[in-house]
Amino acid sequence: MTGTLTEEDLRRDTAAVADRPWQTVVWNDPVNLMSYVVHVFRTYFGYRPAEATRLMLAVHHDGHAIVAEGPREQMELHTAAMHDYGLWATVRKAPE
């Protein structure tokens, strides 16, 4: 082995990075009630009450929660929807 990367190695490495999912992150804010955040998570994402509450508590106590993972385009749609509901949300690449 010479230690140089082949074209196939570069394609495989590039594909691995591209396949990493993206995340929709909802951030804590001083405006929305906790009950409203649970309502949004249940209404939009279809989470059961316990999961919606768990995510809301993560937002409240940790300052943010990952509410969805998947392709970038879908996460951008989720983020826009959260904005429409009045929540602060961003899209980010999932960590390796």
From TrEMBL:
Q: What region holds the Adaptor protein ClpS core domain?
A: 19-90
List this protein's GO terms for biological process: proteolysis
* Molecular functions per Gene Ontology: peptidase activity
Q: Which keywords label this protein? A: Hydrolase, Protease
Which superkingdom heads the taxonomic lineage of this protein's source? Bacteria
User: Tell me, what's a Pfam family for it?
Assistant: ClpS
Against SUPFAM superfamilies, the record matches this protein to:
ClpS-like
Subunit: Binds to the N-terminal domain of the chaperone ClpA.
- Biological function: Involved in the modulation of the specificity of the ClpAP-mediated ATP-dependent protein degradation.
Q: Which family does it belong to?
A: Belongs to the ClpS family.
Q: What is this protein called?
A: ATP-dependent Clp protease adapter protein ClpS
The taxonomic lineage of its organism, from the top, reads: Bacteria, Bacillati, Actinomycetota, Actinomycetes, Micrococcales
